[in-house]
Amino acid sequence: MATAAIDERLAEGLAGHGLEGFDVAYVLGSGLGAFAEGLEDSIEVPFEDVDGMPASSVPGHAGRFVLGTLGGVRVLVQQGRVHLYEGRHPAEVTASVRAFARLGCRALLLTNAAGGLDPDWSLPCLMRITDHVNLQGSAPLKHSERGHGTPYHPAMGEALVEAAAAGDVELKSGVYLGLSGPAYETPAEIGYFARCGIQAVGMSTVAEAAAAHAVGMRVAGLSCITNPGAGLAAGPLSHDEVVEAGAAIASIAGRLLAEAGPRLVAASTD
Fold it and tell me: What's the CATH fold of domain 3-267?
C-alpha cells in the first residue's frame, strides 16, 4: 500500500471541504469528542465524505472532522481514529496526521483513552505523554523516513503543563505503551509493563506520533486514564467503561484542550 497516495488524496479531500488553514490539529480518542462542540464558526464533515479518510468502527469515535476557532486560533479536530486492530494498514492509521502536515499544520495534539498502571493515581485522570514504547509490531514510517529520538517535543509538553495550570487541571505525566489490541492485556502483562516504567497502556497514538514527527510536525500527547490496568481493578475491563470514564472527565479535558491551543501553536513556531 502506497503511503504517499493515501495522505496526498486525504489532504486534497480535506482542502476540498474547506478544512484547511488551521493552526493546530487535535486527534481525539474514545469519549473525548465533545470538545469540538465548543468551537466557534465551525464546519463539520463526516469521515466518509472526505476522500481517503478511513472510517472508524469503534464505539465512542464520532468519525468526523470539525474546523473552528477557539482562543483566537484555528483548530481542526479529528473526532475518532482508525486502529491497527480494525484491520487497517499503518498507512491508513497515519494518513490523517500526514495530511495535516501537507496542509501546513505544524502543531499536533494526540489524545487517547488508556489504562493506568500507577495504583496511586485516582481515576479517571489526565496524563501528559513524555515518551512512548511501541509494541504494536508494525512500522509506521516509510523506508525513506527516519524518526530520531522521542516524537514528543519538549516545548509542546511544556505548553500542556502551562495550559493545565491556567485551567486549574491536574495533569500527571508518564510513558505510554502502544499495543496492537484489540484484546485487553493480561494481569501478568500489566505487571511486567509496570516494572518496566510504563504509566499508561493503550492501542493507538504511537504510530501517529512517529509519523507526524518524521514529517516535521511538533507533537504533544495526552492520555485520559480511564481505568486501572488488568489485575489492578476488581472486575474485568470493558470498552463501555472506557467511554463512560472518558465522558466523566470530558469537561475537565475540554478545559485543558481549550487552554492548550494558543500555547501549542506558539510552541510549534519558536
Answer: Rossmann fold (3.40.50)
